[in-house]
Amino acid sequence: MSSLLLRRLHQTPRHLLVCEKSHARHAHSRHAAHVRDHAYNCRVSFLIPECGMLPEVLKSTIADVGEYYVVRNLPLHELVAHEFIDNFVKKGSCYALTYNTRIDQDNTAALLPSGKLILSVDKDTYEELGLQGRPSQYSGKKVMRYSAEGSTLMSYFPQNQIRSLKPKITFSTLRDLQCPVLQSNELQGKPEESCSAEELFEWLGAVLNQVNNKSSNFVSTYCCPQPSTTAEQAFLCTITGFIIPETIIQLLEKLCCYFDEPKLAHWLTLTVHGFADSPVSWRESEHGFHKGGENLYNFVVFRNLDYWLQMAVGTNDDCPP
């Protein structure tokens, strides 16, 4: 059994983490473009150290995160019908994604706001459709989610076929949180002075998943990288649902405005998870599930509005832009 476990450890899937830094107010900053290029998002979290409640500057954005819509039993040909294209696609900002499908096993589809329809289908369906395409780089191989203008969608589809949903929003205050020391100009960190972007990324994953940081014989633990400081409190907000890039850009801008007035926090984070079974990650880059379906990104915004952007994907995915 030990040798089998060792072989499996050697087969740990590869992951890609791309990091870049810039300034939110720099004329050539690409932060908004990177957000727009990641169309299908299921969870957004922001963490603000030394903060105990939702800041006033964020309240209107959180209150207006919008709705999304589930359309049941929708034939795929409806998405290429002239009436649908005229009512939604040509007006822009229409996002659609198959729901409850497995990208590595089921037929899936995604409609990008550019109007391009992405299909990921098995061999039999591909031959039946008679379309030109290319083989997926992943071996093995229903319902649609929409985000568009609500009143138009609700009138376009029968009432028994469409349902509107609101993203779920949760707030929590973390007490005595150990936070890594970061310096905006040091992505790689400095020994005994600051932590690296990669160390921050791992720590943040533990915090967002509420991994215990106390020693136990039966519970997985994770220690904060060093050097670190202890925040008496930290505010965590998580939004779950179908969240479009425009909403995330507004939220990121308000988080930057949080530092307009002096704050105790030296930095804050905004983390965005893409749907694990989306057929694309960034732009039109093919995405597969393999062992985890990772496609996510994280902003670390500093007091002076310098930021780090970390983009991560899993096995076989193309390198993020």
UniProtKB/TrEMBL annotation:
InterPro entries: RNase_P_Rpp40 (IPR013893). GO terms for molecular function: ribonuclease MRP activity; ribonuclease P activity. It holds the Pfam family Ribonuc_P_40. GO terms for cellular component: multimeric ribonuclease P complex; ribonuclease MRP complex. One of its GO terms (biological process) is tRNA 5'-leader removal. This is Ribonuclease P/MRP subunit p40. It comes from Nothoprocta perdicaria (Chilean tinamou).
